[in-house]
Design goal:
Blueprint lengths: L12 E2 L6 H4 L20 H19 L3 E4 L15 H4 L12 H13 L17 E4 L1 H9 L3 H11 L5 E9 L5 E11 L2 E12 L3 E12 L10
Parallel strand pairs: 2-3, 2-4
Antiparallel strand pairs: 1-7, 4-5, 5-6, 6-7
């Protein structure tokens, strides 16, 4: 998609984890690390593991660079017209990750939707993780509001290194806490990024694993001006 084209929201398309790798590797932007405190509870152990798993196994792995995690949950406000319901906007409407277990999938989806106003700080997610950085929400909002090549290039030049940043939703779990789902907003430049819904499952003895991903929105991609 040319960088001058406005982002378009396609109908949800099933997209496997490894199919995202090529697009993610084109990411090229940075944000300002911040340790500013944010209100709300800290994630529980399972939530922390899932946030780190998604950030590191998808975004750090495919960009080979540090990645920011915004320290507050994704803003649920809808400014576009018309505003579609959350299940449609966040790719939660179809039970595409159910694999026959629709009861658990529906429970995880409903749990996520019930948590959209949950006050929580994600500032601790990058703690002890070499290639994750905590990002203040106002820093992320400013670079998104000024989303042009000049601002992203200047931002990168001033702060250096980071491929982009992630805005996470709360995490929804089924009653047995064996299935989970999270919505992710990835920003990496004026025309670079996407929204995905990520389904996960708990594997005995191996922790959480990503079972599937749904591409909800693609913002296109453009070359990183800071890289050769």
């Amino acid at each position: 998609m040319p960088s001058s084209s406005p982002p378009r929201r396609p109908a949800p398309t099933r997209t496997r984890l490894f199919a995202l790798g090529a697009a993610l590797a084109l990411a090229g932007c940075v944000l300002h690390p911040s340790t500013a405190p944010t209100p709300g509870r800290a994630p529980g152990a399972a939530e922390m593991d899932i946030y780190r798993l998604v950030a590191e196994s998808v975004y750090v792995r495919t960009t080979s660079r540090s990645v920011g995690v915004v320290s507050t949950l994704l803003d649920t406000a809808c400014t576009g017209m018309p505003c579609r319901p959350f299940p449609m906007r966040w790719g939660l409407d179809p039970l595409w990750w159910a694999n026959g277990d629709t009861t658990a999938a529906a429970a995880a989806r409903d749990d996520l939707l019930a948590r959209i106003s949950d006050p929580m700080t994600l500032a601790g997610v990058p703690a002890g993780q070499t290639l994750l950085q905590s990002v203040a929400p106002d820093s992320a909002a400013r670079v998104v509001a000024r989303s042009d090549t000049a601002h992203w290039t200047a931002f990168k030049a001033h702060h250096g290194g980071t491929a982009g940043f992630l805005w996470f939703s709360p995490i929804g779990f089924d009653a047995q806490r064996k299935s989970a789902i999270v919505f992710v907003d990835w920003r990496c430049g004026p025309a670079c990024g996407h929204d995905v819904a990520v389904a996960l499952r708990a594997v005995p003895g191996a922790g959480w694993q990503i079972s599937d991903m749904l591409l909800v929105l693609s913002r296109g991609a453009e070359p990183d001006p800071a890289r050769p």
